[in-house]
Amino acid sequence: TFLYCFSRDMNNSLLQENNKNHNTMASIGCTLLTHLLIFLLWCILLPLIVVLLPFVVLAIIIRGTEALVYYCKYKCTPIRSTDLLWTFETPGNRMIISGMLQLDGKVYLETFRTSIRERLIEKKNEDGDLIYPQAQQYLEAGYVNYYWKNIGKININDHVYNLCQEPVKSETELQSLISEHSGKKFPNDNQRSPWEMVLVPYLTENSQVEKTVVVFRLKHAIADGSALAYFLINQLADNGNQTGTMIKKFTQRQRILLNIKALWYLPLVYAKIMLHPKEKNVLYTKELTGIKKQAWSKPIDLETVKRAKNRMNGTVNDVLVGCLSKAMGSYFQDCRQLSTKQNLTTIFAVDTRSSISEAQYFRNYVAGIVVKLPMYTETVEQSIQLSKAIFDRVKEIGEPISTYMGWHFLSFLLPAAVSKFFVFDQVGKTTASISNLMGPQYKVTINGHDVEMFAFWPPGTYTQSLSVSFCSYNEQIRMGIEVDTSVLQDPAPILNLFEEAVKNI
User: Fold this and answer.
1) I want to staple 179 with a disulfide (CB 3.0 to 4.6 A). Which of 83, 294, 308, 499 is the partner?
2) CA 43 to each of CA 49, 166, 497: distance values in angstroms, whole numbers, following the listed order
C-alpha cells in the first residue's frame, strides 16, 4: 500500500509539471518503483491463485453443469462472461442504455416496423444465422449464472410503437417526455426481449414542419454503445455498410504486444481500483430514487474542438473531458461543495475492440476504468492539460485492456453473486459514468428521412447518480446527461457550464 501510494503521488506530481526536461530522473525513478510494485503484486497473486485453484475448478464445474442442464431442458445459452457485469441492476439504476435519433419529416409506424423486422429481428449473415438473436430472447437467472432463452414468436407491436399521438411542441417538453419514458423498467413477463424503439412526433420551436424522434432503449447486457451505434448506422440506416462507428486501431502484432503489457500491469490496475477511497461530494448518495432527468447540449462544432486539441497536442476526448471537469468544478463551487484539490471519481467507458468487424454483433467489449477528474483548476486549458496527462497514462499502461482482461477472468471463474458483490463494492465509491461514442461524420438516412441529431445516455451502476455521454455525428458533438432526482432536479446548470467552458477555448 505504501509503495502504491508513493508511486501514485509521484505520478500526480509529474502530471502537474509542464516542463518535462527537469523531471527525467524523477520519471525514471517513478517507473522503476512502479515495476517493482507490480513484481511484488505478482509474487503475492500467483501463490494465491494456486491456493484457490481447487475452489475455482469446483466453481467452473458447477457453472458448466448448470449450463448443460439449462441447455438440455430449456435450450438456453449462458450469457457471455463479459456481458455479465451489465445484468447487475438495482431499483436506482436499471442498466438500460437509452438514446434518441431526430429524423426530418414524419415517419410512419408500419413502415418503421417493417424496417426493424427486416434489419434487426430477422437479419441474417451469409451463413444464414441470425445476426441479432438477442432481439428474440430474454434473460433468465439461474443459480450461478444468467441465460438467454428464446421467446418463440416475437410481437413487434410490444417493441415498436407510437409513444404519443399529438406532436410535442418544445425541446423542454420533449426532454421531459423522454426522461419519463426512459425511467420505466421493462416488463418481466418472460415474453419480451428487453429492447424497444418508439416514435415521438415533434414540432421544433423554430419550424412548424413535423419531425420524428426515435427513442431507443435496450438492456446493457444485450450490447454496448459501439455495437448499438454500428447497428443504427450500418444496418438500420438506408446508406449503411460504410465504416461508420470506428476505424481499425491496432495491427495483430500491436494487439498481441498490448495484451502482454496489459497482463503485466493487471495487478496494479486492480490494486488502484480496490484502494481508491469512497467519493464525498454533493452528487454522491446511496439513496437513489430511480427517477431520471435527461437532457442534451446544443451542437458543438467538431472542427472547433479539433483545432483546440491540435493547439494543446491532445485528443478530442481530452478537450471534451477537460471542459466537463471545469464545468463540474464550477458547479461544485456554485454549490459551495468544492474543497482544495478535489476530484470527481468516475467510471470512464473505453471500447476495447481493435477493428470495426468486432462491432457487427451485439456484444459488450467495453471496459470501465476509474478516472479522477480534477475540478480545482482555474482555467479550461489547465483542465484539458490535466485530463490529457491522465489519459496518456491510462493509454501508456494499457489500463482498459487490463480492466477488460481482469473482468473476463473474474466473471468466468466466480459465481454471478460473488462478481456482483465485487462490482458493487468498487463502483459504489464513484459518482458518475462517462462514455464517448464516435459516430459517422456524414449524414445518414432511415426510411428516406435524414437523421438530424443523435444523442444517448449510458446507464449508471449501483450508486452512480450521474451519467454523461459525448456523441459525434455529422461534424457535430453533443453531450448527453442523465441525473437522478435524488441529487439534482434539473441537469441544465451542468450543461450550461459545459457549453460555457467550450466557448472559452
Assistant:
1) 294
2) 11, 66, 47
Spatial CA neighbour of 244 closest among 346, 360, 101, 104 = 360
C-alpha cell at 326: 471545469
Residues β-bridged to residue 466: 432, 483
As a dihedral over the C-alpha atoms of residue 175, residue 178, residue 179, residue 185, rounded to 10 degrees, the angle is 180
Domains of the chain and CATH, by start: 252-446+455-504 (3.30.559.30)
DSSP for 300-334 reads: EEHHHHHHHHHHTT--HHHHHHHHHHHHHHHHHHH
Q: What residues contact 289, with CB distance under 8 A and at least 6 apart? A: 92, 484, 485, 486
Spatial neighbors of 463 by CB under 8 A, at least 6 apart, are 92, 284, 285, 286, 288, 427, 428, 430
Strand order, beta sheet including 137-141: 77-78, 146-150, 137-141
Question: What per-residue confidence (pLDDT) applies to 132?
Answer: 95
* Cα(246)–Cα(155) distance, integer angstroms: 33
Q: Kindly tell me if the per-residue pLDDT of 20 is higher than 50.
A: no
471: burial class by Cβ within 10 Å (0-12, 13-18, 19+)?
Answer: buried
Model confidence at 385, in pLDDT bands (50, 70, 90)? very high
How far apart, in Å, do the first and last CA atoms of the chain sit?
Answer: 39
* Bridge partners (DSSP) listed for residue 161: 198
pLDDT of residue 259: 87
Digit-coded pLDDT (tens) for 441-482? 899 999 999 999 999 999 999 989 999 999 999 999 999 999
Taking alpha carbons only, the member of 458, 477, 492, 474 closest to residue 219 is 458
**Confidence (pTM):** 0.88
What percent of the chain clears pLDDT 90, i.e. is strictly above it? Answer: 56
Separation of alpha carbons 6 and 286, rounded Å: 31
Hey, what's the cell of 44?
A: 503475492
| pLDDT 10s digits, 154-209 | 899 999 999 998 999 899 999 999 999 998 888 875 678 999 999 999 988 776 78
Distance CA 175, CA 156 (A): 25
pLDDT for residue 358 is more than 90: no
CA nearest neighbour of 87 among 189, 196, 194:
194
pLDDT digits (tens, 9 = 90+) for 400-431: 999 999 988 888 888 888 888 888 988 988 99
Question: Could you give the dihedral angle defined by the CA atoms of residues 130, 136, 142 and 146, in that order, rounded to the nearest 10 degrees?
Answer: 60
Spatial contact of 312 and 388, defined as CB atoms under 8 Å apart = yes
- Separation of alpha carbons 284 and 500, rounded Å: 24
